[in-house]
Fold this protein.
Amino acid sequence: MYILEGNIGVGKSTFLKLIQTNLPEIQILTEPKDNWVNQIYGQSLLENFYKAPKRWAYTLETLAMICRSRDHLREQSNSNKIIMERSIYSGHYCFAINGYKSGFFTPIEWSIYQKWVQFLLEQKCNPPKGFIYLKASPEICLARIKKRNRISEKKITLSYIKQLDQWHEKFLIKKEEVAENIKNVPVLILDCSQDFVQNQENLDKHLYKLNNFIEKTYN
């Protein structure tokens, strides 16, 4: 199992669709974001979070943790080549911690959330074979967010994207304050600053690096 990580707007979902088309031997599992984007709970938790983060951070991150850990536990014994979009790791080390540092959690909410995450990360979730980290500047990510024009993302600011960028770097590049069992997990970094949808040459480079990375780390 491999995990695709990256900031909001970097192009994760788009890249996964292109992988599915060009490397059909690799299975794709997209992020279960419908659970917190769509109105299936009578409201969009993601939209609510951007409007009132102190009210909704704990609810949103707890639901995301449940959904991501469920998928992780189901797929970690899968012997096929599979790439999951985002994970319990980035959910915790990037989004939830950023929320905590921003004052969006009460002390008791953070304590409860941490107990669950520590249990899952340290005792239940096996590390992936590798992380695939899509990188682009916060400015480029925000421009792509505005271009896709999702209602739930109207309140996203450049400041927020910059914060998430810093947490992704700390988690995936510096590997600071992360669980011991993922410190040695290899990371493939793909620079997605340039278009890879219309530019076939850029896409081919990414797919070549990805395929090579999986071949080297799969066994």
